[in-house]
Amino acid sequence: MTLGKMSDGKFKKVRMEAWAFMPTERATGTLGLQLMAPDNSKQVFSDEIKLRDAVKSYGKWVFISKDVTLPTDINAAQQLRLFLWRADASDTVMLDDVKLSILE
User: Fold this and answer.
1) What is the pLDDT, as a whole number, of residue 99?
2) Best exposed site among 4, 44, 60, 62 by fewest CB in 10 Å?
């Protein structure tokens, strides 16, 4: 979604939240946030929650969150993406109730 569709005004900070499930310590994954150029040609900003660092209890759902300060030069035409990345995962990783909130 473009930033302009998310809010009428410019915002500086967002919060990523989710419930994460990792069955074992071997599981890996990332809750990622990206800002893309208006034509999707390149990433202009990214941040993440590394699930291996955030989740310390395995075999149950764990709440994770992170506040992210966005660059000052963002614009309404840029696209925001929120996603689960499991590039090298050897075990199941799941997210539920993923939420992105504008803080300021």
Assistant:
1) 95
2) 60
